[in-house]
């Protein structure tokens, strides 16, 4: 979504009406009996606030808990709407953004594994090898982030004129 923003006080459905075309999003919209579809709008804002890489909440480890407590003001079970989160990611993020999310998740799991594995004579060699390999993984991750930055700075709204491209 090139026009992504986080103005959560506005109706998500008025800001991004084209998402209602997708069946699963349409179902939550159409089944929402709240005034002005505020419940489903807040749900979609919660997903965007947690899972869009440009959100200030994106890098917070307990972002879902914070959004539940401070934004939704209820205890939503995120595993029950995981299909909506996945659909949001697939339909609104670029391939580079999805790759970044995958890398971040793998790095998080790797970090947790390394922290949870006891360092002893049986595990030392494997943990040391994994620790050394982590540097290369972070280099790959940095390449993805650079690609994302390049992608976000491109102006794809219109083709460049001949004078803008330097051809005349």
State the separation between the terminal residues, measured CA to CA.
33 Å
- The whole-angstrom Rg is 20 Å
N-to-C SSE series? Answer: HHHHHHH
Task: Give the CA-based shape.
Answer: elongated
E-strand count: 0
| Largest pleated sheet | none
Please indicate the count of domains. 2
What class would the helix/strand composition place it in? mainly alpha
Helix proportion range: 55-70%
Which parts are unreliable, with pLDDT below 50 for 5 consecutive residues or more? 156-161
Mean pLDDT: 88
How much strand? under 5%
Please report the number of helical segments.
Answer: 7
Can you offer a commentary on this structure?
The chain has 168 residues and is mainly alpha-helical. It folds into two domains: 80 residues, no CATH class; 60 residues. Helix content is 60%, strand content 0%. The radius of gyration is 20 Å and the shape is elongated. The two termini are 33 Å apart.
Describe, in short, the structure shown:
This protein is mainly α and 168 residues long. The protein has seven helices and no strands. The longest helix has 30 residues, at 124-153.
Top keywords for this entry?
0% strand; elongated; 168 residues; mainly alpha; single chain
Q: Which helices and strands appear, and what pairs or packs with what?
A:
Layout: H1 12-15, H2 23-31, H3 38-51, H4 63-72, H5 82-92, H6 95-116, H7 124-153
Helix pairs in contact: 3-4, 6-7
């Amino acid at each position: 979504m090139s026009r992504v923003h986080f103005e959560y006080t506005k109706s998500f459905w008025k800001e991004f009406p084209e998402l209602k075309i997708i069946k699963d999003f349409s179902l939550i919209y159409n089944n929402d009996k709240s005034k002005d579809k505020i419940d489903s709008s807040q749900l979609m804002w919660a997903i965007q606030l947690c899972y869009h890489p440009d959100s200030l909440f994106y890098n917070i480890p307990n972002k879902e808990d914070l959004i539940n407590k401070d934004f939704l003001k209820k205890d939503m079970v995120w595993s029950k709407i995981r299909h909506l989160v996945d659909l949001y990611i697939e339909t609104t993020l670029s391939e580079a953004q999805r790759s970044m999310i995958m890398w971040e998740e793998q790095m998080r799991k790797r970090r947790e594994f390394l922290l949870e594995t006891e360092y002893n004579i049986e595990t030392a060699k494997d943990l040391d090898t994994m620790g050394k390999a982590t540097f290369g993984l972070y280099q790959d991750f940095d390449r993805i982030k650079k690609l994302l930055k390049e992608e976000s700075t491109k102006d794809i709204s219109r083709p460049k004129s001949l004078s803008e491209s330097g051809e005349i």
